[in-house]
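Continuing the series of single-chain predictions for the mutant panel. This is the parent chain; the variants come on the following pages.
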Amino acid sequence: MKLSLFDYSLPAELIAQKPALPRDHSRLLVYDKKTKKITHDYFYNLTKYLKPTDVLVFNNSKVLPARLLGHKESGGKAEILLLKKITADWEVLIGAKHPKIGLKIFFPYDLIATVVGKQSDKTWLVTFNQSPQALQQILAEVGKLPLPPYIHSMASESSLIKQYQTVYAKKIGSAAAPTAGLHFSKNLFSKIKKLGCQVEFITLHVGLGTFNPVNTKNIEDYKIHHETVEIDLPTIKRLIFAKKTGRRIIAIGTTSVRTLEAVLGTRNALTRSFKGEVDIFIYPGYKFHFVDAIITNFHLPKSSLIMLVSAFLGRTTTLKLYQLAIKLQYRFFSFGDGMFLK
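Parent structure:
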């Protein structure tokens, strides 16, 4: 299947640079697969399209303020972006001229990162001179959020940390927000629970690989990124029971889709908690085993995320909905508007 089949043209002014305020006042496109009905609404009216028997599954990963700005021994500027903890070391991207093993980068609060290895073509391994607890405190003080490259915000760091974080974020570890969840306010959560819907939380720590363009001519040749997932046993049992009793499983975001399909899609008898990495690549031809409906944003052309949506709706339908959204000037990408696909 050719990569070019998932391309579309988006006017730059439709790339959202800031979230809707309040966050649940973004627009919502609702599409019913059975009736092919399209409805245009606002996210705060989501409960109009839910049933008391629905199960909503959220990714509660929290974005790490993972960019650290520092300098080399020579005084030259350098920065690192924390990607993933690997035993005692961190996999990072390094922004500096000619990084190499042995390079030391100095940061505020006497924090020093030493490059100890090469992890991949683009990433390095570093070790820090301070404890994990001290590192977390320093990140909270001086770390900057790794916003997507298409967002050029002039907002303060404190504002961005609130804006680019879901209201239910709990487990720190993501390099990017699970953005479908950014639409949910505390008030909307109350309405969902009052309706009687079951709410569940899983964890997938979003890696920067989520922004990687698919770079193979044939999408079947693409090797998708790995991401760390955690689901505790009580949650697994409740989800399996809900699925077996015919309740509609609604995944909030593509990260929740990938987690549910990878962990529970073919393992309906899983009897232990799950912690590990997933690298499931969902594109047209994939048969969904666990997820019945998806709440998601509008995604980048040629991305693995638009391919996932195309697997759920069909490629032609997906691109038609995107063209309609462009015509009606919906806002796209991380801070943009949402879709409820059911």
